[in-house]
Every structure is written in C-alpha cells, then in structure tokens.
Amino acid sequence: MELAEILRTLWSRKLVVCAILALAVGAAFGAGKLASSTPTGTATVQLLVDSPQSALADLLQNTVPLTTRASLLAQVMASETVLEDVASESGVPVGQLTAQGPYGGTGQALDVVTPSEARGNQLLGEKAHYRLTFVAQPNEPVVTASVQGPTAIAAGRVAEGVLPGVRRYVASLQQQGATKPAQRVTIRQLGPAQAGTINSSSRMALMAVAGIGVLLLGLLLLLGIESLRRRRPPAEDEGEVPYERDLAAVG
Hints:
This protein is of the alpha+beta class. The chain has helices spanning 3-12, 14-36, 64-77, 80-90, 116-124, 152-160, 162-176, 202-231, 242-250, and strands at 41-50, 97-100, 130-136, 142-149, 186-189, 194-197. Helices cover 52% and strands 15% of the residues. It is rod-shaped.
C-alpha cells in the first residue's frame, strides 16, 4: 500500500483514527501516572558509631567493638520504634515510611536475597512514600542510610531526620539503663545528606513509548482491515443465481 493510498484510507476513516488517537493519549497518561507513583528522589547519609571521646581520634581505643555495635544498630534502625522517631524529626507521618535493614548479618551487601519474613514486610510497604535502607559498612563503625522519596528535597529531609531520630532512640535506652556518660555510644553524622534525582526521564520515556505503541498498533490494525476489505470479491446479489444471469446475458 503506497503512502498516498494510506493517507486516503486514514482520511476516509477519520472517526476511527480519532478514537485510536484518544486511546493512545489515554495510554500515555496512564503510563505517566504509574511512573509517578514510584519514588524519584534519593538521599544518602552516613552515621558514625563512636565513643564520647571519639575512638577515631584516640589510638588507644579499639574500634572493633564499635563496628559490631554499628551492625547491630543498622538492624535496629529499621524497626518501627526508630522509624517513629525519624518520622517525628522529619515532619513526615510514620505511615509513609518503610525500612529495610541488613538481614544477613555484619556488613551484609545490598544484593543479598532477603529472607521471606523480611520480604513480606517489604511488600506491605511497597506503596509507602519513603523507603529507607540501613547498611552497616564492613570493618568500619559506619552505617549508611539511603532514602527514596517522591522528590530529592523530600528524600533529603527524611535523610537529615535519621540522625536526630536515632539519637533520640539511643538516648532513651541510655536513660532507661542509667548508662554512665563515659560509656555511652555517640552517633555522629559524616557530613550533610547527599540528595539527587533518579530516573528523571523515565516517566516521559514511558509515556512516549506507551502512546506511540498504542497509536501504531491501532493504525496498523485499521489499515490491515481496510486492505482485507478491498481484496474481498463483491458479494453476489441475493436471490439471483448464476444460471439466471447467464440467460439474461444471452437474451
């Protein structure tokens, strides 16, 4: 089918083409809405598990116990109690937060398969606005907190609330146990939270692919149907048999 013939066919079926175009626009907006429901902002902050006099600045202090304590703290930071403190410091409802900790032990890598019990909790929080991940660094008393949120600014705000939230939780434990000041764990933040945007162009790309895909599929289907209709032989008149037509031709 030549281009001119294709254009004539589409013009003769203007209403059908408009319907296909409307479906394509709807598919694009639907894909955009689906993409906008996923977090697009990210922020990362690192917390140092230290002693009151800073073990990093004192050669006589052993940092191995602090490394073990950091691994334990990373597990606890994903608990509901700590999330409540983080949400309070960030000004975000706690119901919008979901967290994941290093379920495999000390220095667990991010790509290790999560057990089914922990994964079940993650699936319940798939629709949360903010997703937090806490990972203890191997051989270092450092916990890396990563936050995904609707925007980079929102994720950064929650990331900045991790330190005061964790400090509040640890301080409450120290007060309950009457821990001596010289024996208390000190949480320090290693610089401000680093925020940015992830998948900034994925929404527009998904909308374009969905819209163009539906449009092309609809137009190809329309042209295919029209092509089959033109190739079909004309139907014989009802009530007229071939013998009668032959007699009429002879006469």
